[in-house]
Amino acid sequence: MRIPVYRSQAQATSEAPGRRLTARMDAAPFITAELRRGEVFAEAANQVSEYALVRANALAEVEYNEAMVAAQAEMEELRRSLRDSPDIYNVFREDGTGLWSESTNDIRTRLSEGLSHRGLQSQFNARFNQAEVTARFQLRDEIDRRIEERAAAAQARRLDQLVAQASNPDNEISVLGFLLTGADAELVSNVAGGIITPEMRTIVNSRVAGAVATNTTQAFVSDNPNRALQLAAAIDLQDEVERGEMTPEDAARLSGLGEDAAYTLATLQLIPRGDAIEILYDALGRATRFADERRQQEERSDARLQARVTELYNNAFAFDPRESYNVNEVSAYSPVVAGQLNELFGSGVDGLYTGAQILRAIEDVLQFQGLSPSERDTLRQHANPEVTLPFAASSNQNIFGELSLLAITGELDLNRLNAERAALTRDDWLLLANRVASEADSTQRTILNIVDATFSYNRQTAPNNEAQVESQAAALDVERQFLQEILNRQRTGNPMTASQQQEFANSLIADRETTYRQTLSRQLSEYISRNPGLPPLRPGSELADLDAWFGSLENPSRSDRTNYERWRFRISEYMTMIGGN
Amino acid sequence: MADPVTLAAVSIGSNLIGGISQKRAADRAAAAARSASEFNAQLIERDIDLLEKQRNIINANFLVQSAMARSDFERDVQGAVRAGFGFAGIDMSQGSPMAVLRTNARKFEYDQSVAEFNNQINNMQIADEQENSRLSAQLSRMEGGAQAASLRAQGTASLIKSIGASAQTAYNFNIGSRGGAE
């Protein structure tokens, strides 16, 4: 028998329980989120930082620019002040210090410390140093120039002193050599030191010699033209002096000069013959002008005296010998006459003098002032009551009117006035007499101005060339003749009326003008011939020819321009004075 | 208008604040990275436990299967053999029946040995998997640490950069060396 047996059908699984999880956490999103969240705030802070920094840099840049402007301005101001500083030797010292260095360091430090940005401070210092170098060299040039100018001025003063010392004609001749050798030794030292060139030494020596010769000659000649002529004669003997055949003293003696001229001759011997002649020519001109001036001054002095005498004489006829006059009236007329009255007649009767007494006193006074016999006779005749007609109690109006008309037109003279005195009161007579005198004076002044203008004479400035000398000579010549004639007429008791003065002056001007223009034309020709560098100039169109010549020069040199301007100035002056252009 | 030094001080302060903010953000990002890696590591470490449980189950199953196979073999195979030979009157202790029983037993032992070998292989695989998971968890933590370190370094670099820029500004505007903003 087969017993059923239960057979289990269950089968244990071989599968393991549970599953392995493959899910993994990715950290990237969390990291990114945290970083992004931080970036937001950081970016905001960075933006604030960037903006503040940009603003700070911009303001620092402004500070820098302002500091540079201030530096330039302060350096320029410093340069100007130091340029004019009297203490020029302390501006730049040899050891690199000095006023400039100290001041610029102060400026740089002060302005640099005011800058906020360190980098811009460095930049500022670099730029400042760069600008400082430029300004320093500019100032150094100016300082050097001032130092050189001071040195040159000091040397010029020494040379002036030397010239002054050597320009005394009373010096011993040995002094001349001593002084000039000493000056030349200093110039030689300057040449050796490279301060001046050898050519400059020659020029300075030549100019010193010329100045000494000029000053000495002018001092020696002074206002004596004869001395200039004698010196010129002595110069002719200079060849023999130079050859050693004659001493300067002998040359002076032979030419008529004393030994006191030896020093002057020695100075003239130092310079070329042509220059010596020029100096003598100038000295002669000066001496001549001095002599002329002195003569004219004497003439003017005489004229003033004569005018006073003439006035006294003419006005004497205002006193009627039969009338009585108060002493005060006489004093107003002439204090000298009043004094003479007191001398002759005491204090008068109650202070009154008769006209005859006054006329006597006038005659006495005029007697010492060159009263001519005819004038004395006329005066005595007037003092004679039998001859002299009295003044009228009242003026004849017809005659007074006629005489007044003549006085206004400048045709009334004293002869005519005296002829009518019986028809005039004393006051009317005096009125017309004064008008005659004042009219003549006014006309006289006008005529003198016309003369000056005609001859281009400026009496305010001394003539400094031959044309102006001629101008002065012509004007003074005419004026002298004119004034002389006026005086002569006054002395003869017949003063010139205004119209007579004008007529006479015109004739004098016409006579002298011809000579004046001829002289100037000749001088112009001589001037042109003396300057061989001048181009050919046709008479009458000199200026136009000169301008055309200069205009034709393609590239005129400085010398051409200088010569042109010098020539044109002189020729233009001549042409203006001649009146051609 | 504020002066340049004050504005520079503002710039420095803002710059530092920005740098600090970036540093903090980087630190937080690093923490997130570390947290994520830890999370992943724990997930992976869970597999180790799971594999251990699988190992126990497989081993238990193997024991059960082995016992059941031995029982079945004794009862169904050897029993049948003994019954058949016994019914046939065959001496069981000699001759073929024994040989058959022995042969069956040897084959059964072989099968059992194969099953045990397979079970050991399975245990070894599970052990490898567990080791793999442990290493993966460790790697995850290491990666998270490295990433966190990188992020912290990035934040530190930002902070240093901002400090450097601030220091440069302070130097340019002379702040600090003369007592701060004037």
Helical coverage of chain A, percent range: over 70%
> Could you list the spans of chain A in which at least 5 consecutive residues all have pLDDT below 50?
none
> How many helix segments of chain A?
21
What is the alpha-carbon Rg of chain B in Å?
A: 38 Å
Tally of individual domains of chain B: 1
Shape designation of chain B: rod-shaped
Report how far apart the termini of chain A are: 184 Å
Q: Give me the count of strands of chain A.
A: 2
Biggest sheet of chain B: strands, sense, closure?
Answer: none
Strand content of chain B: under 5%
Percentage of residues in strands of chain A: under 5%
Textual characterization of the structure:
The complex is a heterodimer of chains A (581) and B (182). With 581 residues, chain A is mainly alpha-helical. Helix content of chain A is 72%, strand content 1%. Chain A contains 21 helices and two strands. In chain A, helix 5 runs antiparallel to helix 9 (262-269) and helix 20 packs antiparallel against helix 21 (558-578). Chain A is elongated and about 230 Å long. The mean pLDDT of chain A is 83. Chain B is mainly α. In chain B, helix 1 (4-87) runs antiparallel to helix 2. Classes of the chains: A mainly alpha (581), B mainly alpha (182). Chains A and B meet through helix 1 of A and helix 1 and helix 2 of B.
